[in-house]
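The aim of this short unit is practical: by the end, you should be able to scan a pair of folded records and say something sensible about each. We start with the first protein, listed as its amino acid sequence and then its structure tokens.
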Amino acid sequence: MTPTAATPPTVLVADEDEITRRFVCDNLLADGFEVLDAADTEGAIARLQCGPDVAVCDLNGATLRLVDEVRGARAPAAIDPATPLLLLSRSDEELDRIRAYDRGADDYLHKPFSYPELVARVRALLRRSQLHRGEGPMRVGSLVIDRVSRRVTVAGRELDLAQKEYRLLVHLASNPTRVFTKEELLRDVWGFRSGVRTRTLDSHACRLRRKLEGDAQRLLVNVWGVGYRLVD
């Protein structure tokens, strides 16, 4: 679902804790959002098929399974695999955050949290999602990205990209030839805080370059010590 002036954004709140779920739902409703809610994985999967614009989830041990359901190839056809996912968790361990981002989460918020921060993150995800779903394909040299169908081709050959590889490519293509710093990419694509030390960006960029193959590999440039950019 794409929100318009006449249809406010819909947020799915999937949380096993009823107090948290009701608190978040009531505040979102007061702020003018449409709200769907679920208390378990099965309910969340059912509500996701209604097409929410953002999903806010904390299902304890089942949260990453829900991420896999949304991002995986076997997701129900009615679920949009690009649905932005904001995970809530009582764990603030770096390894847990990295695992969540690598599995396909768009953002991660530690409990307890303040509602103003949560709604700010929801709105940021909505802005990012609407930008990436803008009309018309993105083109950089022989690379074509259709953000509606999420289809990526290079010289007519379709690429099979993982979720984060796709998001990294779209982010770089949003401003071709500009050098995006590693800190910017880790923040905007993975949601990491500044100063986080991780090799996840370099590994994803390396896999993405391999998938481009042949001459197309030159499209993705590693600017040593700074970050990455695309070239025509």
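Turning to the second protein, read its sequence before its tokens, just as you did above.
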Amino acid sequence: MRRITPLIVAAFLAIAPATAVQASAGPCKPGSGPHLRGKDFTDGAPLPADLRCADLTKAKLDEVDLTQKDLTGAILRDASLKEADLSQVHVEYADLRGADLSDADLGQLRAKQADFRGAVLIDAEAGQAEFPHADLTEAVLTRIVLTQADLTDADLKDADLRGAELGQVKARTADFTRARLRDATFDQAELQYAVFKDADLEKAQFTQANLQGADLRGAGVKDATFVQADDLNLTGTRGSAEDVPDDAILPTDAGNPLTGVLAGSGQGPSTPVVLIVLSALGLGATLMIWGAAHRHRRRSSAEYAIARRAAEEDVTRFGEEIDALDFEMKISRLSGPSAEWQTALDAYEAAKRSLLIAQTPQELQGAAAAVRHGRQALEAARRSVSDVHRQG
């Protein structure tokens, strides 16, 4: 779920710190800035002061100091930024597909909705970097350090994160489908409703991670550790995990503990074996009613998890729709109709609050109602912006 609500431009400029104000001032159309395709800056050649929406396709920026630069909306496709310093750099909405950022310093990078598809970030340092809603599909992030980074709703399908450090990462609703995460660490990570379907989690560590609603179906968890992990559901996983909490939901094919006891040695069962079997059957009968109730609670919990994930995704999509219109207005130097725009923002906040307090599928309806109301207001704001475009 999104952590930062987009604000109207005037309010944002009034309260943001200087660096953020600079990053949002004078919105531009991606690629409309300086044309620097294929340029080589490794020999100390000066960079333009304004790099917003610059075209730096295939540019060479290895070891270049870009600290605190504003590259919002820039095109950096296939650019080489090996060992470059991008700490506190703004690359919101930027296109970094295929870029090489190996060994780069990405500390506190601002990469909201940036496109990193197929990018290479091997051994990069990205502590406290922000990648909410970013696309990192098939990116190579081997041994990257993402401690305390924000990967909320990021797309990491088929990404290579072997040996990555993701301690205390915020990755709510992030998608790690088919990602390679062998030896990765997620200690104290926030992974609520994240997706790990068919991912390789062999020897990964999830110490004290919050896995509420996380989908691990098809994931390989051989030798993965889950010390004190919260709300772990191993349904449909492959392999045998270690240090699994007592309250975790285990795969259904765990096997029958009596299998092999009755196999014997080809002779009739001995008296001790018969007594053991009878005792087990008696215990099973005693626990039958409890087991039925427990399964019912588990089914109810699973149904709620599915419903909540759907609600989270709907609220997230609504937030992205708000972001898209907000960005369009900034590019066009427009201010949206205040009433409809504020109504949409208020509805988004109401939906988030509803999700926060919801405990049952029925209570999730409040979030759905807020989203419906907000989308109506957002559509009205979008029509007004379109009318201004046509008049212009």
